[in-house]
Automatic annotation (TrEMBL):
Protein's name according to its UniProt entry: Anthranilate 1,2-dioxygenase large subunit
EC number from the UniProt entry: 1.14.12.1
Keywords: 2Fe-2S, Dioxygenase, Iron, Iron-sulfur, Metal-binding, Oxidoreductase, Plasmid
Organism: Corynebacterium occultum
InterPro entries reported in the protein's UniProt record: Rieske_2Fe-2S (IPR017941), Rieske_2Fe-2S_sf (IPR036922), Ring_hydroxy_dOase_asu_C_dom (IPR015879), Rng_hydr_dOase-A (IPR001663)
Native organism taxonomy: Bacteria, Bacillati, Actinomycetota, Actinomycetes, Mycobacteriales
Length: 439
């Protein structure tokens, strides 16, 4: 008798599908979307080039001639503010022999000199000159300006870029995500959001879409973040996020498919009335003393001020790379098919006393340090699991065709129970549109 071959019961390894539509079914996606380098390379051109990609926040360019190094897919980009205050996004790629020009994360510079052979460019991308031009028989400077992200637009401080001349306006692209972004921004009394200079960066060995799959996922918290929830529930029944640990679909939380690949997970119905977001936060050192002090100093405004110390209670995912989680801006930066960097930027807000921003910062230290490693461990383990070629499909069928879960509103937004995987199904629709080259 031979050794039983357990694998023979699994699907035989099949020829890779050929058309993009073959990778995505109504209820599942093919593993190769997460494992194949050739697909990743094409995504970097078609997804991270042809739709609006989040680049930076205006507050990161505080004065004329400020710059910031970012990425648009794999393209290194310098976002600059010129001396007149106009924002540009240029390729960080010398037009001589391709070296990156700017190797700093941020700063102030009117021009950039390439460290390799000294070509110099203005922060608008224009070539100022090349050393010893007599060495060129025929040299028209204007042909060698830096490549530019052809369209750069800003929505209330959020700067996006696209290489697609036919893309809709940024406002149209944000579409039904706009009111949610407005809510997030308008928690600041004057709508002023400031990104602080430092960032919390984490790299994981997994595909970039694993982070996007997770941001709107209301199914995982009670399992992935069990230790966090247990700690919270030891301190009371309704502390922040512990509501995920019961039967989340029976509650009032919801997931909304907003169109264009965007989605939002709304936790706000767990809270009622001014002060309740603060009231239900996880423990923080000094919070009792802090609350007393705020109530004494600002008796008429204390509930509102305390609530903005805590997170916004929404997870807003703006396809393909911007996630607003709590009070933080998280950017997904793909590095390779199985390597990704996540950058978390904490924010402060204008129009509130300094001590509110200090406490807000303490809140923002909590989840990236304590919860995010749970998620990233799972991203890496999914990537490891995906190494089984015989098991081809990843499911995203939770909520599909379940009676009474989904509600369609007039503007096309679909609202569903919080553990519905509709956020995945809807962004894969947008992914497919882009990969098929539809404008
Ligand atoms: S590569 Fe930049 S000057 Fe040569
Ligand atoms: Fe999570």
């Amino acid at each position: 008798m031979g050794i039983p071959n357990e694998l023979s019961e699994l699907a035989p390894v099949q020829q890779a599908p050929k058309r993009w539509d073959d990778y995505i079914r109504r209820d599942r996606v093919h593993r190769e979307l997460y494992t194949e380098d050739r697909i990743f390379q094409e995504e970097m051109i078609k997804v991270f080039g042809q739709t609006w990609v989040y680049l930076a926040h205006e507050s990161q360019l505080p004065e004329p001639n400020s710059f910031l190094s970012v990425r648009m897919g794999l393209r290194p980009i310098i976002v600059t503010k010129d001396r007149k205050g106009v924002i540009h996004a240029v390729f960080n790629r010398c037009s001589h022999r391709a070296a990156t020009l700017c190797r700093e994360e941020s700063g102030v510079a009117k021009s950039f000199q390439c460290p390799y052979h000294g070509w110099t460019f203005r922060n608008t991308g224009e070539l100022v000159g090349a050393p010893w031009p007599q060495g060129y028989a025929d040299f028209d400077k204007s042909e060698f300006d830096l490549g530019k992200v052809s369209r750069v637009e800003t929505y209330r401080g959020f700067i996006f870029g696209t290489l697609n001349e036919n893309a809709p306006t940024l406002e149209d692209h944000l579409g039904n995500a706009r009111p949610w972004l407005d809510y997030w921004i308008d928690r600041a009394p004057e709508g002023e959001v400031i990104v602080n200079s430092g960032a919390h960066r984490m790299g994981y060995r997994g595909n970039w879409k694993l982070a996007y799959d997770n941001a709107g996922d209301g199914y995982h918290p009670s399992f992935s973040h069990r230790s966090l929830l247990e700690m919270a529930s030891r301190l009371g029944d309704s502390k922040d996020m512990s509501y995920f640990g019961k039967t989340p679909d029976d509650g009032a939380m919801s997931i909304h498919s907003l169109g264009n690949g965007h989605s939002v997970l709304d936790q706000r119905p767990n809270f009622d009335g001014p002060g309740s977001i603060w009231e239900n936060q996880r423990p923080q050192p000094g919070r009792e003393w802090f609350e007393e002090m705020i109530r004494e100093k600002y008796p008429d405004d204390a509930d509102r001020l305390l609530d903005v110390c805590a997170g916004a209670q929404i997870n807003l995912s703006i396809f393909p790379n911007l996630l607003l989680i709590g009070n933080q801006i998280q950017v997904i930066e793909p590095l390779a098919v199985d390597r990704t960097q996540l950058t978390w930027n904490a924010t402060t807000i204008g129009g509130v006393p300094d001590e509110i921003n200090t406490m807000r910062m303490r809140t923002q230290e909590d989840f990236p340090a304590f919860g995010e490693p749970d998620d990233q461990a799972n991203f890496e383990e999914v990537q490891r699991g995906l190494a089984v070629p015989e098991a081809e499909w990843i499911l995203m069928n939770r909520g599909l065709d379940v009676e009474d879960w989904q509600e369609l509103s007039e503007n096309g937004v679909i609202k569903s129970a919080v553990t519905d995987e509709i956020h995945m199904r809807s962004y894969y629709g947008e992914w497919l549109r882009l990969m098929n080259g539809e404008k």
